[in-house]
Amino acid sequence: MIPQPTSDSAISTIIGIALMLIISAGVSIFFFRKSKSFDEWLIGHGDLGPIVTGLALTATWMSGWAIYGNAGLAYTYGWSGSWLIGVTNLMGLSLCVVLGYRMRRYAALGAKTVPEVVRLRFNSKFLQAIVGIVMILLLIVYSVGQYKAMASVWKLTTGMDWLLSLIFTALICGIYLALGGYTGTQFSLAIQGLIFMIVGWIFGIGSIIWAGGPDKVAEAIEKSTFVRPGGVDTGIQLNNYIAPISPAFAGNDWIGVTAAMLMFLLMATGFPHNIARFLGIRKITKREYSILMLIVILNCLTPLMIGVMGFVARAVWGSELMKIAPVYGDAAATLVSMAMGGPIGGAAFSMAVFSAAISTLAGMVMVMATNITRDIINNAIPNISAKKLLLISRILIIPIMVIPLWWTYTSPPPVLSEFMAGSAVAQAGIFFFVVAVSMYWKRATKMGALCTIIYGMIVALLHPSVYGKYVYPFNHWGIWALTLMLGCGVIYFITSLLTKPLPEERLKELFS
Amino acid sequence: MNAIIILILLSLCFISVPIIAANIGGWASYFGIFIVCVIWCILLLILRIEKWEEI
């Protein structure tokens, strides 16, 4: 029987989430007292070690998509949902660990934000502002997913109204972010990363046992068919790693699969809130570097564990959840946790979802707020006082959180992870080249970076759910995503080779 | 290990993922792909440590 919210589940969830937030807020307040300047608030003291950085990195990487939406993907699409679940997510995050470490070099040169790295690299304040604006636009879309994850789990476990659930989650995020700043965020992120790793693994493994073993689950998935949100059965089998559901679905064919793999490979490095984790890391040894990589390996298995809960839900309840609006299959993991562990199980899983979603949202809001103050306002008014910048950053957190909140309230995406993948492709295509490759490739030019951004943003509008549905062949997700990501690469390299790089003396400062 | 050999092995890991998914299926593919990713990660780590100063 599908579990229903009760007063016990509501109380347990409130206690569980409150506990996680009290620990996070405590850490934030501690660092709020230590942050004496705007720069410290932004980047801390550049003394964070491999364990904190590793856990914080996995926390910003794994959002509501991974810890909540993955179960929805497995439930809705069966094995063909595995590609957006991120079975290959470790490839991308380990690449980010290798490439992102060079951020330290730019932090030493004075960079406090990712757009500042771009300014230093290309000696262009204009490019810094453009990168800041584009990041804000793409991250707002990505924030919508975090709200849906947190508000859904709150609604499912407490039975509270959708709008109130959304407002509640937004208030919590805003308070602890305004208090803690970067270092506070980094430590809170580390704690949250640890919480969702433990909870995710326990529920992933436990749910298979609860459902009667892996063979029984696999057998049920073999017999399952694709049911649309609303409950219409299409009869399309879900027994393979591709399923011809719709060209707009990533697992529709091998072109879509290739695009999803490429997206996961590039997006961890392309996500500004991810690569920004390396701005505060201290110099580490080879042994410490291996520890950082080990943490990444362990936590990258967590999204797969959440996917397992979706397969289990499908095996136990069939397609019943596809009739429950507005959450549909995304409810799978929360309901499995409640069915397995009662109110305590629901509360523990809610803690994990809040940990994942809040950590990513916090990382993104931080990037967006500082993009406006540091990369746009401070760029235009160089003499503005640090005190004013800090105040503006904290005030800006409010509108930055309200815009995606309104979006989630008025039109929540039916399958969370599919929606978020749209923004992820654009971030992967644009910032992997403009930020990460540029840190290593001397020949990269300002014009190359600018053309890549313009191209990426234009093609982003051709997403199958936006204008792509009117423009063949962009109604196909795989073709759209490959056109965006590979196109960004082609534009970046060709334009850079055709234009003049920075003077050799300047490049020596950055690359020596 | 030579950097070029590592890069070839990394490419093989990437290419093997859809092959595993198409030819094995079920749980074996689901967690098998992750094992391939762990191998990829170890190869990257070796490459990173070998090129410590350059990266």
Task: List descriptors.
heterodimer; A: 512 residues; mainly alpha; Sodium/glucose cotransporter; two-stranded antiparallel sheet; globular; B: 55 residues; elongated
How does the SSE layout of this entry go?
The complex is a heterodimer of chains A (512) and B (55).
Chain A: H1 7-34, H2 38-43, H3 50-61, H4 64-77, H5 82-85, H6 89-100, H7 103-108, H8 114-122, H9 125-158, H10 162-210, H11 214-223, E1 225-227, E2 233-237, H12 254-270, H13 272-275, H14 286-300, H15 302-317, H16 332-380, H17 386-410, H18 416-440, H19 446-460, H20 477-498, H21 504-511
Antiparallel strand pairs in A: 1-2
Helix pairs in contact in A: 1-10, 1-16, 3-10, 3-14, 3-16, 4-9, 4-15, 4-16, 4-18, 6-12, 6-14, 8-9, 8-18, 9-10, 9-16, 9-17, 9-18, 9-19, 10-15, 10-16, 10-17, 11-15, 12-18, 12-20, 15-16, 16-17, 18-19, 18-20, 19-20
Chain B: H1 3-23, H2 26-50
Radius of gyration of CA atoms of chain B, rounded to a whole number: 13 Å
Major sheet details of chain B: none
The coarse silhouette of chain B is elongated
Characterize the biggest β-sheet of chain A. 2 strands, antiparallel
Calculate the mean pLDDT score of chain B and round it: 92
Helix fraction of chain A? over 70%
The outline of chain A comes out as: globular
Beta-strand level of the residues of chain B, as a percent range? under 5%
Class by alpha and beta content of chain A: mainly alpha
In total, the number of domains of chain B comes to 1
Q: Provide the spatial order of strands within the biggest beta sheet of chain A.
A: 1-2
Q: Provide a count of the helices of chain A.
A: 21
Could you spell the SSE succession of chain B in H and E letters? HH
Q: If you consult CATH, what is the topology of chain A?
A: Sodium/glucose cotransporter
Largest interface: A-B, 35 and 25 residues
Beta-strand proportion of chain A? under 5%
- Total domain units of chain A: 1
CATH top level class name of chain A: Mainly Alpha
- Can you name the CATH architecture of chain A? Up-down Bundle
